[in-house]
Amino acid sequence: MASECEVSRRAFVAGVSAFVFGAWTDPPAVTKRVEKLYKIAGCRQPNDLQFVPDGLWVLDQVDPNKAFEVRPEDGSIIQELQTESIHGSGITYGNGALWISSTKMADPKMPPRTLKVDPKSGKTLKSWVTPGSGLYGKITPTSTPSGAHGLKWVDGKYWMAVPASGKLFLMEPETGEIIRSIPAPGVRTHGLAWDNGFLWCVESDGRVIYKLDPSNGRALERIQLTRGDPEPHGLDIHDGVLWYCDAASGWICRLV
C-alpha cells in the first residue's frame, strides 16, 4: 500500500500536470485594488484571517503559533492566545471554538494535525490527523510532510485547503472525517472565504484569488495581484469585501 506521502506526491504531480498542460483555463479576471491597512503589533507573520462578530482573528505563523483577536478598523489587539500549533496556516471559528491547521508538528516524525482550540485559553481541546498531508513543491532530503493551509467554517462544517493533496476538503469538524472534496486551483492553495454560496481560494504562488463553484471546483472568476502587492496568504470576507494577509511582509490588506 502506498504511504500518505507517496499518495500526496502523486496527487501533486498530477495536479501540476493538469494545471500546466491544458486541463486548466483561467476564468475571467475581476479588477480590484489592494489597500494596505496595517500591521499588527507582535504578529510577525500573519498567515490566516477569520472574522467573528466582535473582531478579527489573525494566526501568526511564528512558532509556536499565537492567535490574535483584533479590531478590524485599526488592528488594535483585543486578546492574544498562545496555541500549540506549529507553522500554522489556517484559522476559523465555529461551534464555540477556534479551528487551526497545524501545518507542521513539533515532532517532525508525526503527521500534521488540525486542532480544535479553546478561544479563551488557547488550549487544544481535540485534534485530528489532517487528510492529504504530504510533500509538495521543492522536495529536499530534509523536507517534512505539510498539512492544511486555509480553513473556513461554513454551515456547521469547514472547508480546508491541503496543497499536497491537490484538493479542497469539506470536513465534519467533530470527527475529522471527509465529507467530500473538489479539485484545488493551482499548487500552493492557501486562504479561503465563503461568499454567498461561492468559495474564494488563494493560490499564493501565482498571486491569484479564485472564485469557485463549491459543488465541483470550477473556477468562475479570478483576481490577479501583481508582484508589487503583498503576497496573498490568509483570506476572509467582511461586508462583501475580501481581506487578505501576507506572512512575509506582515500586511493586513483588503481588495476594493
Describe the structure.
The chain is mainly beta. The chain has one domain (4-255): Neuraminidase (6 Propeller). The protein contains one helix and 20 strands. The chain has one helix spanning 4-20, and strands spanning 34-38, 46-52, 55-60, 66-70, 77-82, 90-94, 97-102, 113-117, 124-129, 151-154, 157-162, 167-172, 177-183, 189-195, 198-203, 208-212, 219-224, 234-238, 241-245, 252-255. The chain has a four-stranded antiparallel β-sheet with strand order 1-20-19-18, with no helix packed on it. A four-stranded antiparallel β-sheet has the order 2-3-4-5, with no helix packed on it. A hairpin with a 4-residue loop joins strand 15 (198-203) and strand 16. The chain is globular, with a radius of gyration of 17 Å. It starts with a helix and ends with a strand.
List keywords for this structure.
256 residues, Neuraminidase, 4-stranded antiparallel sheet, 1 helix, 20 strands
Layout of helices and strands:
Elements lengths: L3 H17 L13 E5 L7 E7 L2 E6 L5 E5 L6 E6 L7 E5 L2 E6 L10 E5 L6 E6 L21 E4 L2 E6 L4 E6 L4 E7 L5 E7 L2 E6 L4 E5 L6 E6 L9 E5 L2 E5 L6 E4 L1
CATH superfamily: TolB, C-terminal domain
CATH architecture: 6 Propeller
Sequence of secondary-structure elements: HEEEEEEEEEEEEEEEEEEEE
CATH topology: Neuraminidase
- Our Rg estimate from Cα atoms comes to 17 Å
The total count of helices amounts to: 1
CATH class: Mainly Beta
Structural class: mainly beta
Number of domains in the coordinates? Answer: 1
Strand segment tally = 20
Oligomer: single chain
Quote the average pLDDT. 93
| Uncertain stretches | 1-22
How many strands, what sense, and barrel or not for the largest sheet? 4 strands, antiparallel
The residue fraction in helices comes out at under 10%
Shape: globular
Q: What percent of residues are in strands?
A: 35-45%
- First and last CA, distance: 49 Å
- In the sheet with the most strands, the strands line up as 1-20-19-18
